[in-house]
Amino acid sequence: MTPEHLGHASPPENYQRFFVPVIGRPLAEDLLREAALAGGERVLDVGCGTGVVARLAAEQVRREGKLAGVDIDPGMLEVAKAATPAELKIEWHEAGADALPFDDGSFDVALCGLSLQFMPDKQGALEEMHRVLAAGGRLVLNVPGPAAPLFENLAEAMDRHVGPKATGFVRAVFSLHEESELEALLDDAGFQDVEAYAYTRDFALPAGKEFLWQYVGSTPLSGIVANAGGESRSALETDVLAAWARYERDDGMSYRQRIVMASAHT
Predict the structure, then answer these.
(1) Interior angle at CA 121, CA 212 and CA 150, nearest 5
(2) Tens-place pLDDT, residues 84-139
(3) Contact 203, 23 (CB under 8 A)
(4) Complete domains list, the chain, with CATH
(5) Where are the beta strands (DSSP E) in 127-266?
(6) Residue range 184-204, pLDDT digits in tens
(7) By the 8 A CB rule, do 148 and 170 touch?
(8) Is 107 exposed, middle or buried (0-12, 13-18, 19+ CB in 10 A)?
(9) Residue pLDDT, tens place only, 55-78
(10) Rounded to the nearest 5 degrees, what angle is found at the Cα of 114, between the Cα atoms of 47 and 71?
(11) DSSP secondary structure letters along 94-133
């Protein structure tokens, strides 16, 4: 993928094609291991994006379970629907996390993968998750951060060549990563048995140029960078690839990121 390809597919389509296989699915698998779903459970995926968490969860709860995904982005939901086999029977809903369209106590488990950090009203979103969970229900979520050097290099290059809006998005991805902050948010939302812990995860990424434009094209950076002009995009690529040379391996790049996992019960 190159800068010229940014307009050929939507960011949600690129997200599903490029981001999910290398980063999204591995972290969704971690989330599901932590959740330890049982057959028949009613599961809600909040901030579901293109639905990787919901699809993995649906396979675990089997036909007797119930699965729903909710996201505020209609483009993400369109891709989620297209990527989901009909037999999984996942319900998709367009809504903000702070206004979930479900009755009280509708679910046994709420999952929130890589999305709480983007929610404007985090407290309201967690309170809504608490509301729609049944007594004894549980919430499991994960967030990345702080930014590993690879993404810090990207943020710095965006700041030099594209501007603060692009830099702001890269930093927002990693903006919620303190265990104590997550635990306080969950406590204030009414959850019990709150626990948060950090671990590191290794990822195998494509080569630098390929990953740079795949990532840009998979996120809101797509439009921002496309509007920056060819000279700025060229300078961005030069700076990023020079910084990323240290992560290159024979078959791509190696990337290690700190992840925070949190869980709680109603």
Answers:
(1) 20
(2) 999 999 999 999 999 999 999 999 999 999 999 999 999 999 999 999 999 999 99
(3) yes
(4) 3-147+175-205+253-265 (3.40.50.150)
(5) 133-144, 192-205, 248-249, 252-265
(6) 999 999 999 999 999 999 999
(7) no
(8) buried
(9) 999 999 988 899 999 999 999 999
(10) 10
(11) E--TTS--S-TT-EEEEEEES-GGG-S-HHHHHHHHHHHE
Distance of CA 74 to the CA centre of its chain: 16
Concatenated DSSP letters for 17-43? IIIIIIIIHHHHHHHHHHH---TT-EE
Structure tokens, 264: 């709680």
| Residue 40 tokens, joined | 């028949």
Residue 1 in this model has a pLDDT that exceeds 50: no
Structural tokens at position 213: 């434009």
What pTM does this model have? 0.95
Distance CA 167, CA 135 (A): 41
Half-sphere exposure (Cβ direction) of 162: Cα atoms closer than 13 Å? 26
Residue type, position 108, single letter? D
Q: Which residue has the tokens 């920056």?
A: 228
Q: What is the pLDDT of residues 9-42, one digit of tens each?
A: 999 999 999 999 999 999 999 999 999 999 999 9
Question: Is 189 in contact with 129 (CB distance < 8 Å)?
Answer: yes
Let me know: does 172 contact 118? Beta carbons within 8 Å: yes
Give Cα 234 distance to the centre of its chain.
28
Measure the CA–CA gap between 140 and 51, rounded to whole angstroms: 16
> For residues 197 and 261, is the Cβ–Cβ distance under 8 A?
yes
Q: Which amino acid is at 86?
A: A
Q: Tokens in use for 185?
A: 């948010």
Dig out the tokens for 156 from the structure: 């710095």
